[in-house]
Amino acid sequence: MTPVRRAVNLAAFLTQTAQRLPSADALVHGDVRWTWRELDSRVGALAAELTRRGVRAGDCVLLHSANSVELVQTMFAVWRIGAVLAPTNSRLTPDEVVVIARACRPVLMVCHASQPDHATAVACDQVLWIDGTGPDAVSSLPAGAVPDCPVMNGAPAWYFFTSGTSGRPKCAILTHDQMGFVVTNHLCDLMPGTTAEDASLVLAPLSHGAGVHLLTQVVAGARSVLTTGPGLDGAEVWDLVERERVTNMFTVPTILKKIAEHPDAATRDHSSLRHVIYAGAPMFHADQEHARSVLGEVLVQYYGLGEVTGNITVLPPREHGRARPEGMEFGTCGRVRTGMQLAIRDTEGHELGPGETGEICVAGPAVCAGYLDNDEADAAAFRDGWFHTGDLGMTDENGYLYITGRASDMYISGGSNIHPRDIEEKLVAHPDVTEVAVLGMPHPVWGEVGVAVWVGRADEDTLRAWLEPRMARYKVPRHFVQWPELPKSGYGKIVKRTIRERLLAEGWTP
Q1: Contact 423, 388 (CB under 8 A)
Q2: What is the CATH number of the domain that holds 414?
Q3: Is 356 contained in some domain?
Q4: Range of the domain at 118
Q5: Average pLDDT, consecutive stretches of 10 residues, N- to C-terminus, the chain (510 residues)
Q6: pTM, 2 dp
Q7: Residue 304 burial (CB count, 10 A)
Q8: Alpha helix locations (H) across 146-247?
Q9: Domains in the chain, number
Q10: CB atoms within 10 A of CB 498
Q11: Within a domain: residue 433?
């Protein structure tokens, strides 16, 4: 009989750091500066209140708030009592949060006081408020001390919602032991040498990848600096980098592009930066090169899905600009992460060799325990011992991965498979194109035809003339649509599903 083994509760990361560095800064948010001792004490107070309200180990707590110090407090308080955290992006509508709540069935909701409609819609029996007043406000709780609840291997820590909320949402179950590996791996591969002398700037919502990144700072004792504005403010970003001597940050390509193009990037002191990490979507080569020219060799790219908690490949600063194989229009997303394994497999499950395109599959300790109450999703994603990402790619002779596209993004026009990323890379290389998305739309004769939706000053004739000598004619999009901006998710990703729906709603026809 296999013995049950105890895992390390994620709350222990804070407990240990608060013991080691009690007076050092843990969180900075505007004029607010919490030390590790203060954060630990506030976590204890909230943990005691959650326990008093009947929240038990294994129960789910729904967290809906923009980034704040109280959000971090809530994360660790939930873990401290052995409950499961289900954070949502603060930009979601009340109806979207309701769909998530139905999937994870929370016993209590912690909600920002500026969004009461979300709490009303969820109709949870108990609600605590961030930035509120009165006895139900997180900030008004009396001091309390609660030990870290024992948890075993396989115990869920985080319900990580990985897709949109149209239809049934997919919720990856992240466990305490899995996340312990992920944090170790992040420190090993993404920001080696991080210590209590470092500072991290929080730019993305802590409800997803940025929250995982924050865990690594807690383990190392590095302080996390939160922006104060409701949106991305490049001036504030570079002011904080200079003033707080920020050494690392987690971004997505759209955020990195914006801050690298901001005028202050060229005038403020950012010499403290060592690791500017970006993930979540491929970054166009032209945008990548511009960021390198402005910031220096500090970019760290990683590739991974929520189900693998980002742990598939890494491209460290010294490997940006690596030569790509002949005929490949864009660069690598790096080599496989420490302790992980990937394979390129065809539709029959056969493993493919270098230069052959197939589905990217991954195995290792960073893979989630499965989906919450979703056997259909489990069966589709977990096959033959591998997690199937749904992304298409190839490796070179040295094992470096190149993502050619999302399987669901590929379209078939006149019998030819077309992967949008190659076209998008070429379009965004035009100096008068700032953003672009290429997708397949239905056509009565060709099955699907390519549609390029772009932002910028260039006109359609210019873009056609730009593409035609650079690719086979059948790959050139049949239609071009210019928009003032492209729709993005709450995490800064361009959402092709929304683009397709908007095109159809506006009466697009072939």
Answers
A1: no
A2: 3.30.300.30
A3: no
A4: 8-22+33-151
A5: 89 98 98 97 97 98 97 98 96 90 97 97 96 91 92 97 63 98 98 98 94 98 95 95 98 91 97 95 85 97 94 96 80 96 95 95 98 94 94 94 79 74 86 91 80 92 90 85 87 80 84
A6: 0.85
A7: 23
A8: 176-189, 209-220, 234-244
A9: 2
A10: 16
A11: yes
